[in-house]
Amino acid sequence: MPYMSEAYRLAQWLSGNASDAEDIVQEAAIRAFRGIKGFGAVNARAWSLTIVRNTALSWLTKNRPRKVTYINDLNPAEQQEIEYEGLHGTKVETPEDVVLFKADATAIQKALEQLPTQFREVIVLREINQMNYRDIAEITNVPIGTVMSRLSRGRQLLIALLGDQK
Amino acid sequence: MAALLQDNEELQLTAYCDGELDPAAAGEFERRLAADELLKARYTRLMSLRQAVRALPQVDLPSDLQAKIQARLKAETERSTAERPSNVGNVTVLRRRSWSFQALAASAVFGAVISGSVLKTIDRFGQEDTIASEVVAGHIRGLLAPQPFDIASSDRHTVKPWFTSRLPESPQVPDLAAQGFTLLGGRVDVINNRPVATIVYKHAAHTVSLTTLRPGQTVPEQTIAGYNVRSWSDGNFTYVAVGDLPSADLAVFEREFAAAAPAPEIKQ
Questions:
Q1: Among A26, B107, B237, B264, which residue's beta carbon has the most beta carbons within 10 A?
Q2: Residue B73 contacts by C-beta under 8 Å, 6 or more apart in sequence?
Q3: How far is B246 from chain A (nearest CA, A)?
Q4: Which tens digits make up the pLDDT trace of B229-259?
Q5: Is B13 at the interface with chain A, CB within 8 A?
């Protein structure tokens, strides 16, 4: 089952919970089963993950609304700040300020869970599923430029969150 | 303005870390990286963050999940069969008819077997992709080499015989200098395990490689690694033009080339 483990992994990261991930993957498999006729894409892997991602978001919105945070929930100014300005813009860094991360799994996992959904999903698709920008853009249904800026901002947010915990 | 510049740099850094910059931009970025301590430190930090994220323990697929899914899909199928007498809507009829195909294909995509037709489609797309990638790879290799051609000449009467002596089929080599595309020379690329002729032109600061393949192939218009790819065919060859110039300019190139290449000589 080549894509099943990946599908489950993505669901697990989006939901942050093993039993929710099981429900999501089951639901996604049934959606795939119903929607197979619409399968015109070349990339079966991206197609599978698209279904899992969309299923996860609607399942979470319905069952765990507090886990899904969209930047659209913020007011336009905050949204602007997160999307375009980020955290580094206001700070002057020197090479000595730049900290490296030890693989402190718990801290990183917690930080990842705190990220708004849009940022978390692109980071998971990139780092865990190791998809390229084009596939991530297809899966999350946004332009490639947005994938790039969300990855950039998402990583900055992660760095800031990890910095705060020190 | 400074914030904007920094923002752009951050995006470039991101794309560089993810291997999404085209070779020219990546080379340029590496030079900046070597010269800028802070940028290098930020790069190292991003890479250490990546390693930390990738090192996170990954959950394994629960062993009973697949069985659960099979059971639910079976239940779905049975339910839809049971609904048959009560439901006469057009949509349901359509849906039911392809049910077994759907079952087959869904299980394919989610793992078990990929049905032959899907595989064939993927294979065909894959092959076109491979040809385009190989042509672009030849172009990039040409740009990385000291010069992008094996035979340098702006004289079509030098390039054409050079091809003829090396390849079973060689294309017409028009000089399009008057139209803005100066003939630089030619080289032999290997596409799909066959040696083929590539003619190299210069247009302003851009290098254009025109690779000639056996006729009757389709290579979709696309962008690979930042290079535009445009393809057309005549009775003798399928041409694939590659370059970092705008696709509109490639379209002009196609028109000029097609107009200038006279009816091919019959091979003696």
A1: B237
A2: A29, A30, A33, B103, B106, B107
A3: 19
A4: 999 988 889 999 999 888 888 999 999 898 8
A5: yes
CB < 8 Å from B in window 48-67 of A: 48
Secondary structure element (H or E) that encloses residue B197, with its range: strand B194-203
**What is the residue-averaged pLDDT of chain B?**
78
Which residues are within 8 A (CB) of A42 and not within 5 positions of it... i.e. 6 or more apart?
A: B121, B122, B125, B126
Whether ipTM > 0.95 holds is no
> DSSP secondary-structure letter at B12?
H
Q: Which residues contact B181 (CB under 8 A, 6 or more apart)?
A: B201, B202, B203, B208, B253, B256, B257
Tokens of B83: 């609904």
Q: Is A87 on the interface with B (CB under 8 A)?
A: no
- Whether residue B35 is found in the same domain as residue B104: no
Q: In which residue ranges of chain A is CATH 1.10.10.10 found?
A: 71-165
> Which structural domain range is residue B29 located in?
7-54
The alpha-helical segments, DSSP class H, found in B64-110 are 65-82, 90-97, 99-109
Please indicate whether, in this complex, the C-beta atoms of A3 and B13 are within 8 angstroms of each other: no
Tell whether B249 is covered by a domain: yes
Please check whether residues B128 and B173 belong to one and the same domain.
Answer: yes
* B202 plus B160 within the same structural domain: yes
- Rounded CA-CA distance B111/A55 in Å is 18
For CA atoms B113, B130, A138, B55, the dihedral sign is positive
Helix (H, G, I), strand (E, B) or coil at B233: strand
The answer to whether A41 contacts chain B (CB < 8 Å) is no
Q: How many structural domains compose chain B? A: 3
Between β-strands B206-213 and B194-203, what pairing exists: parallel, antiparallel or unpaired?
antiparallel
pLDDT tens readout for residues A20-78: 898 999 888 888 877 765 555 557 788 888 889 999 988 888 888 777 776 654 455 55
Q: Within a domain: residue B140?
A: yes
Q: Has residue B137 been placed in a domain?
A: yes
Scored b (16 or more CB within 10 A) or e, B77-113 reads: beeeeeeeeeeeeeeeeeebeeeeebbbbbbbbbbee
User: What dotted CATH number matches A71-165?
Assistant: 1.10.10.10
- Cβ-nearest to A155 among B20, B40, B49: B49
